[in-house]
Automatic annotation (TrEMBL):
SMART domains referenced in this protein's UniProt entry, alphabetically: FCD (SM00895), HTH_GNTR (SM00345)
GO molecular function: DNA binding
One Pfam family recorded for the sequence: GntR
Keywords: DNA-binding, Transcription, Transcription regulation
PROSITE patterns: HTH_GNTR
Name the record gives this protein: DNA-binding GntR family transcriptional regulator
Span of domain HTH gntR-type: 15-82
Length: 225
């Protein structure tokens, strides 16, 4: 019996079918092919994807655990629709979590960490005027700050919140002039990080989220602290 040549790696185990289905549906939701509030037609999707209902239902459970899908008794699955309260509370939580993470990085981040954030910010600057590229670069910058902080629970909460925030119909960066305002706020945040000023960077990050919330047309019931 011949052996596998040493130059070849053994094949990777294929991803479970329901995970593939979940990823396809996730991207359809993010691309607005499945709109917030819309009913998910399981039979139609099964026919489109050429699968049975079992992997589809497992995929829907995954998306429900992420907050992207809402399961309703005897009515099926719907793409989650964010209420005004949902948007406000998500911004307030992100403000608290990310401002504290940024302060920790200002205190404890290495020179290499700060250089990496500078490079990510440079990519953000270069992404204008391409909105989709700006969105992606913006998210990389924010998530990298949280990763550098090293609190895995905080990272998980923020990742989940940011995923659900993509459902927001009134995303703040769609507002006229908000891209430029957001970019200037990032410049100020980066400057405070490079100056290793945790109090200032935390304050600027909170303001960044407060301004983002205001740009959606919502205002906090209580000022973001």
């Amino acid at each position: 019996m011949s052996s596998v040549p040493s130059s070849q790696s053994p094949p990777l185990a294929p991803r479970a079918l329901y995970e593939e289905v979940a990823e396809r549906l996730r991207q359809r939701i993010f691309n607005r092919e499945l709109e917030p509030g819309s009913w998910i037609d399981e039979l139609k999707l099964c026919a489109e994807l050429g699968i049975s209902r079992t992997p589809l239902r497992e995929a829907l459970k995954v998306l429900a655990s992420e907050g992207l899908v809402t399961m309703r008794v005897r009515r099926g699955a719907y793409v989650t629709e964010m209420s005004e309260r949902d948007v406000r509370e998500a911004y307030q939580l992100l403000s608290l979590l990310e401002s504290d993470a940024a302060a920790q990085v200002a205190r404890q981040g290495s020179e290499a960490d700060l250089a990496e954030l500078q490079a990510l910010h440079d990519a953000l600057e270069a992404s204008l005027p391409h909105r989709d590229q700006f969105f992606a670069a913006n998210e990389r910058f924010h998530l990298r700050i949280v990763e550098l902080d090293g609190n895995r629970w905080r990272l998980q909460f923020i990742t989940d919140l940011r995923r659900v925030m993509k459902l927001n119909r009134h995303h703040s960066l769609f507002m006229q002039g908000r891209l430029q305002d957001s970019l200037q706020e990032h410049r100020d945040i980066l400057h405070a990080l490079l100056q290793r000023d945790p109090e200032t960077v935390a304050r600027l990050m909170r303001l960044h989220f407060e301004h983002g919330l205001q740009a959606t047309g919502h205002t906090p019931q209580d000022p973001v602290q």
